[in-house]
Specification:
Strand 14 and strand 15 form a beta hairpin. The protein contains 7 helices and 15 strands. The longest helix is centred in the first third of the chain and has 17 residues. The protein is globular and about 60 Å long. The protein starts with 7 loop residues before the first strand and ends in a 19-residue tail after the last strand. The chain is α+β, with helices and mostly antiparallel strands. Helix 2 packs across helix 3 and helix 5 packs across helix 6. It is about 20% helix and about 20% strand. The strands form 3 sheets. Strands 1, 2, 3, 4, 7, 8, 9 and 10 form an 8-stranded mixed sheet that branches.
Length: about 350
């Protein structure tokens, strides 16, 4: 795989799950926050996504280390954040006088989550050794929180100032390595090189969506989200559809949190999809599929064939329309100790 992805923007996304009180053994006892992108967005307008955005230079400032040191966290406090293996190039290309990428990407995800939905994940001080569940700044009042939310939106450097002001540091430990997606070269719009993290809250927090960028905010279970996509109420990009289908296989939030924590050390498999158009539909071919070919940043053409050839191992998505999606899984086992998504047939096909 080519490592030089100059036009791909480095970005981070957070799958933020929160425990609910209505769960039963047969249903999901957690929900995930999803945001509807602005219709004016240059990339995937009107789609529902997880909180996230582009890496800012301020996310990599060494001043963050000074802040953490003031709270009693030394550099060794971050040693377990980086995966032990399967580390994408985007997380290894460190720059001089900057934070390590595995740390700056986490700060980016936390900052963007605050900007977009007003949830501030952090620690007011060194507390218990439990790093499986995150906390949020519930002590900041609504008006003050919204004021800082606007400041950070307009200037990312304000995030560090806000944390210093409230004596609060981003809870980077609660973000677990989850997945790595790169926009296919054949997309004509913006392209992103995105690290996905997952975190869990003990309850659903108060939210304040950014009206300038976000049309709608909802808390949903993976199953509900996929069903709403099926009913043409929610439009999901490929990574979100695939990850929701993966999360659909775990209905208990404690099991999900434990799995994410234990799996994080195994790192990431890079999902850089192939797009193939046949006479009947468009396909997204993913790693592990017999038809998957390693991508190249210059491969900007969509492959056209009459029909896909027979294959024994499948990890792909069939798109008959933007709402009609079918995950096809056969003889497939994910790498990096991950879970395969739930194969789902869209009833609207």
């Amino acid at each position: 795989m080519t490592a030089n992805l100059k036009i791909w923007r480095e970005s981070a996304s957070l799958i933020l799950t929160a425990k609910t009180i209505f769960g039963t053994p047969n249903f999901y006892n957690y929900k995930i926050v999803c945001l509807k992108r602005s219709s004016k967005s240059g990339f995937m307008p009107d789609t529902y996504v997880f909180p996230g955005g582009n890496l800012s230079p301020s996310d990599s400032s060494l001043d963050w280390i000074k802040l953490y040191e003031n709270f009693g966290f030394c550099k060794q406090s971050f040693d377990d954040l980086q995966a032990a293996e399967n580390i994408p190039n985007v997380l290894t290309q460190h720059e001089t006088n900057c934070l390590p990428k595995y740390l700056s990407f986490r700060i980016c995800a936390i900052r963007e989550t605050f900007e977009e939905c007003g949830i501030l994940l952090g620690r007011p001080k060194i507390n218990s050794a439990d790093t499986t569940v995150s906390n949020w700044a519930s002590f900041i009042g609504g008006k003050e929180l919204i004021l800082w939310q606007h400041k950070v939106h307009d200037d990312s450097e304000q995030f560090l100032k806000m944390c210093s002001h409230f004596e609060f540091c981003p809870d980077v430990w609660a973000l677990k390595n989850w997945s790595h997606w790169i926009t296919p070269p054949s997309y004509l719009t913006s392209k992103f090189n995105t690290i996905f993290f997952l975190t869990t809250l003990n309850q659903i927090p108060t939210v304040h969506k950014d009206e300038r960028e976000i049309q709608d905010l909802m808390w949903t279970t993976p199953e509900q989200c996929i069903e709403m996509n099926n009913q043409q109420k929610v439009l999901l990009p490929v990574p979100q559809f695939y990850e929701m289908s993966r999360l659909k296989t775990i209905s208990d939030v404690e099991s999900l949190s434990k799995f994410a924590t234990e799996r994080a050390k195994f790192g990431f498999e890079t999902y850089w999809p192939n797009r193939v158009k046949t006479n009947e539909a468009m396909y997204t071919i993913l790693p592990g599929d017999d038809l998957y070919k390693k991508n190249d940043e210059n491969n900007s053409e969509i492959t056209h064939v009459d029909h896909l050839p027979e294959s024994r191992t499948k990890n792909r998505i069939l798109h008959r329309s933007k709402y009609s999606n079918v995950i096809e899984i056969e003889n497939f086992k994910p790498k990096c100790n991950h879970i395969a998504p739930s194969a789902y047939f869209n009833k609207g096909c």
